[in-house]
Write a structure and sequence with these properties.
alpha+beta; outer membrane lipoprotein receptor (LolB), chain A; twelve-stranded antiparallel β-sheet; 28% strand
Length: 367
Amino acid sequence: MGRTFNWKRVLFNSMLICFFIFFMKGNVAQAATFTDVPDSHPSAVEINFLAETGIIKGYSDKTFKPSNNVTNSQVALMISRALQLDLNNRPNPGFKDLTKVDQKTYKAIAAAVDEGIFPKGTNFRPFEPITRGEMAQVLVNAFSLKGSSNQQFKDVPKNHKHYQAIAALSANNITTGYEDGTFKPSQPLTRAHFSTFMSRVLEPDFIPVKSGFGYNKNYQYIYELYEGYTSREYFTYLSSDVQGDWWYVSDDYNQGIQYVNSIGKDGFTFKGFLANDEILTDFHIPYPVKLGTSWSFSMKKGLKPVTYAVTSMSETVTTPAGTFNHLMEIVSSDGFQYYYSKDYGHICTKDLRTNSVVYQLVQLKKK
């Protein structure tokens, strides 16, 4: 596909800039690329990602119109940019209804048809919205997506013309459909939903993860902490109750406190309690989590909230405990970078100001 962009570095660098502003001027929100796509929009990160990489352009009034339907010609343009298709010397696509499209759009349509991304026919319908089913077929054709899924959408029977394409999207976790078990294949696709689909195809880190990142009670964890001297912490599983999995975290002198590791539908939480039940530490990762997810919380009332942002979902980190792949990378506004495994939990922490490891897993013992 000839990509020339490093998606994660683009996002990571923009977030670091945002956090450095945070250090100097307080909690300053990152400016949105489009005036009608606030940071709170569910597809804001994906839309801004596609804008940063030049795949989407928006409108001359600096809006994106995320709720508007995306048209066939707009999809052809954006697909051609994403794939960096050569638009020159393409054969006439043979449609009768392209007389009103501009030259650049015509070339993009001709290239997309020539590549087999759109089907040939009498009419292209350049200004009509593309449906969700048609979009599934376009993405499968454009990116050679394959696979089948056990997920069955209630409104996509096996004899549906886009059944295989929708199944391939599901198999690649590009879509999960709607909460009622439907896909709505005949419904026009919005520009925001197009951005979500396209981002997940181009960068799998945008695919939401809805579980994991907690400690695995089948292991004992040994960490090293570096703060002018080296000390160790030992995480030992104790028991489980309605609150979660209880762990005893001790030091080299076997002095320690109890922590509870809780994983629920809303996310992963790790809390440490002193003898008087005062909360010593409180770390939370909300679900679903994906590239660009951000959240803020304060451990205690009155404390300044810390902001966290996910800057990668596919990092590889090597510690004395081994090499860990597909890690989630989190950057915090107080200058730290955390790495979490979906299967094992916390792997290491770096201090961004000194670019040094301050905490890492050094041994993982099977119980």
